Amino acid sequence: MKSDVVIIGGGLAGLSTGALLAKQGKRVTVIEKGNQPGGRAYTYEEKGFTFNYGPHAMYIPESGILADVMARLGRPVPKCGYPDNMRAYWADGDRLAVMGAKPHQVLTTKLFSLGERMQVVKLMLALKSAKPATVAPGTTWREWVDAQTNAPAVRRFALALGTVNTYTRPSGELDAAWMLAHFKRVLFAKDFVGYMSGGWRSMYDVFIEELESNGGTLVTGTRIDRLEVADGRIVAAVTADARYEADAFVCTLPPQDAPALATDGSPLRTELQQWETLVDVRALCMDIGFSRKVRDNLALVFDIERDLYYSVHSFTTPDLAPATGQLLHAMAYLSPEEAADETLLAGRKAELVTGLDLHFPGWRDAIAVERTMPTAKVVGARQTPANRKNMVPLRAASVDNLYFAGDSRDIPYDLSLITLAAAMEVADAIGSASQAKPAAAIAGAAG
C-alpha cells in the first residue's frame, strides 16, 4: 500500500495531523495499534455516562490552538462547558473556600488571611506582567514563586496552581519561563479551561471525518513492528502482515516507546533512544458515575496540601451524565516516585478516597459505575529545565523523511495544546516539502 504520508498512532496527535494533511490533498494512512481510535483521548459510554481515558481539560478551546486547527479544517470548535469560578473550591488544611477569579473575589476569599490575600493579588499581577524571556535559564517554578512572596500559604497556593494547570507533581520542579508563558496564555483568558460536550470524541470524530472524507484511511488493530530504511530514508512501516509505503512518515508514539520501531544498532535507533529517558507525567484517576446527585453546589475541589483534584464534570457539562445522575472525576497527581512504587501509589489512592469521604459524603451508596486508572499517562515529558533541553524535535536527523508529533515535542505549550500545535507544524512542514519537490527536480534536470 502506497500513501503520501503514513502516520504511526491514531490518538489525538495522529488524527489531527492526518486530518490537516488530508485537507491539503495528501493521501494519508493513519495506523493505530488499538481496536479503537482516540488513544489517550478515547471516549466511551457506559450506563448513560460519558467517560474519557482520564484527564481531558482543554485550555482556551475557543481562542487558542484548537480553534486554529478547526479553522483550518473549516469546522466549528466543539461545544464546551466552563467551570463556574464561584463554585470552584480550594482546600488548605482545615480551610475550604471559593477562590474566585476577579480581584474583588480574591480579596474576600476565606482561604487566606487579609495579609495573604494582598500577597495573592501581588502574585497574580506579577504573573500577568511577567516576561518569560527575561527569566534566567534553569530557574524553577518554585524559585520564581519564592522570589515573589514569603507567605507560606501563598507559596503553597502558587505551587498548587502550577500542578492543577500542568498535572505535574511537584510543580515546583517545572521550568519557570515555560510555566509563566503558559499562565500568561491561558490564566486570564475567558475560555480558560473547558470540558467538551460529549467528551473528547466530539473533537477527534471531526478529525476522523475530515481524514476519511478527504480520501484518507484509518487502520485500527494494527501494530507497526519496524520502520524499513534505505538510502537514508524510511521506505515503509512494516507490520506482521503488510508494508505501508509512503513519501513521508509521522511518529506520534511516546518517546519512551519509539525506539522499538528502529533496527538495533541503526542510526535511527540511536537517535530515538536519546528521548526515551524523558520522564512522563502520570495521574491516579477515578471516574465515578452516580445514580443520584451526591453534591450539586460545586464544580470542583482542589486539595492544595495533597495535590488532589475532584471535578464534578456533569456540573460543568451536563450531558456527560443522565439527568438524574452525576459524573465525578477524582484525581491524585503523581510524582515519578509515586507512579513507580506500589506502596506509595496505594497511599495516594487512600488519600484520594479520604477526600471523597470528606467532600462527597454518601458517595459509595450512589455508585452506578466506577473506573480506576492507577497510573494514567497524561503527557510524555515533564517540563523541567533538564527535559526542556532534550524535547523531541520536528524532524529526525538520521533519516530524511520522518517527522514527530505529540505532547513531547519541543513546542512551548502544555498538554493537548502541544499535540495540536505539533500537528499543524508537521502538516505545514510536509506540505512545504512536497511543494518544493517539483522545483528541485526541475533544477536538477537543468543542471
Please describe what this structure looks like.
There is one protein chain. With 447 residues, this protein is α/β, with parallel strands linked by helices. The chain has helices spanning 12-23, 65-73, 103-106, 114-129, 141-148, 152-166, 176-186, 201-213, 267-273, 313-316, 336-340, 342-359, 385-388, 415-446; strands spanning 2-8, 28-31, 43-46, 49-52, 58-59, 80-81, 88-92, 95-98, 193-196, 217-219, 226-230, 233-238, 243-251, 281-290, 300-303, 308-312, 326-334, 367-379, 402-404. Helix 1 packs parallel to helix 8. The protein starts with a strand and ends with a helix. Residues 438-447 have low confidence and may be disordered.
Distance between the termini: 34 Å
Please estimate the helix content. 25-40%
- The CATH architecture of the largest domain comes to 3-Layer(bba) Sandwich
Q: Supply the number of helical segments.
A: 14
According to CATH, the homologous superfamily of the largest domain is FAD/NAD(P)-binding domain
Question: How many strand units?
Answer: 19
Shape: globular
- Class computed from helices, strands and strand pairing: alpha/beta
CATH topology of the largest domain, anyone?
Answer: FAD/NAD(P)-binding domain
| CATH top level class name of the largest domain | Alpha Beta
- Radius of gyration using CA atoms only: 23 Å
Oligomer: single chain
List the uncertain runs: 438-447
Describe the biggest sheet? 7 strands, mixed
The portion of residues forming beta strands comes to: 15-25%
Mean pLDDT: 93
Count of all domains: 3
